[in-house]
DNA sequence: TCTTATTTGATTAAAAATGGTCAAGATTGT
DNA sequence: ACAATCTTGACCATTTTTAATCAAATAAGA
């Protein structure tokens, strides 16, 4: 590695990789000190290597307790993941399995906590007040349609 | 949490959430001591995070037995609105009427655009592949349960 | 009741803590 | 040498923290 910017870039990418959540949060001055460079070098590194085009979102806050947060957004992976779920679901689906899938979607960051709660409610047997085997069929259908909505939005 | 102001903000919001009444009443000096900060920090937190814009009303009184009371009014209004919708929905519900309600919820800012799309999909007759009159009954049930989730969250 | 003291919150300005911009100078690859 | 990339530093902007001083409400005393 020949220069500071590359080293810092590697460091940040490693941190992102380490956090399963695909995110790293730093204090600018602290990292600058760690690598013995001026703080604004961090801005340079971020501006040239963590751009939107490259799939990163950068947020920051100044003042006491300030930070810089870099998030990697993996659109492709998410689509693949959702397609995978779609294939997973057959003609019928138990409530337990459905809840596992919903939890998985929340963990994978493709739905919000509130969305997860809403979907959980929708597929609950108390909501779907019809008997088996129709209930499992409707549940599968509902979840598949929801996944399609998320998959094909935008 | 990165700084005192955020911590205090969280604390107050949690207190509001705990009180079903959507309100919290504090003694400024007491909270300042609890978090080991100067009293005026409470004013700062309130001024920057519990504004009218954000749906809060702040009342206070000085002198012996003084207090600061923060009320979340937006929630009240939204809760009333959602209760109203709940009463509106009977045992059955057509797709058209359901979509009107969903649109109304989106307009009233109680659900996001994506949530609206998801719910639209869920209550569509193509998703609910069962015959009438059961379909309208299940649809009503689904929408009511969803509204309850939104109503009783926090 | 009237006046004074005490309690308690409000305001505001200064200081401290962070991060952002930009442009000049240094380095590196071709 | 030229162009592109990197490094630095001076100056700026935002947010939080702190302290001094003001204002209002209640409590106490005459």
UniProtKB/TrEMBL annotation, chains A, B:
Q: Which InterPro entries match?
A: CtsR (IPR008463), CtsR_C (IPR041473), CtsR_C_sf (IPR041908), CtsR_N (IPR040465), CtsR_N_sf (IPR041902)
Task: Give every CtsR C-terminal dimerization domain span.
Answer: 78-147
An example Gene Ontology molecular-function term: DNA binding
**What processes in GO biological process is this protein linked to?**
regulation of DNA-templated transcription
The CtsR N-terminal HTH domain extends over 3-74
Keyword Transcription regulation set for record: yes
Q: Give the keywords, sorted.
A: DNA-binding, Repressor, Stress response, Transcription, Transcription regulation
State the family it belongs to.
Belongs to the CtsR family.
Q: What is this protein called?
A: Transcriptional regulator CtsR
Q: Which gene encodes it?
A: ctsR
């Amino acid at each position: 590695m020949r220069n500071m910017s590359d080293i810092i870039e590697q460091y940040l990418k490693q941190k992102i990789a380490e956090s399963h959540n695909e995110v790293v949060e730093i204090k600018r001055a602290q990292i600058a000190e760690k690598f013995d460079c001026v703080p604004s070098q961090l801005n340079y590194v971020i501006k040239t290597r963590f751009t939107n085009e490259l799939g990163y979102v950068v947020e920051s806050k100044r003042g006491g307790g300030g930070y810089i947060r870099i998030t990697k957004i993996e659109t492709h992976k998410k689509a693949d993941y959702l397609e995978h779920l779609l294939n997973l679901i057959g003609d019928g689906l138990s409530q337990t399995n459905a809840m596992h899938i919903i939890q998985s979607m929340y963990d994978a960051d493709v739905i919000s906590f509130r969305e997860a709660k809403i979907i959980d409610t929708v597929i609950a047997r108390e909501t779907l007040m019809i008997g088996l085997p129709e209930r499992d069929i409707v549940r599968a259908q509902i979840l598949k349609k929801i996944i399609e909505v998320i998959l094909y939005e935008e």
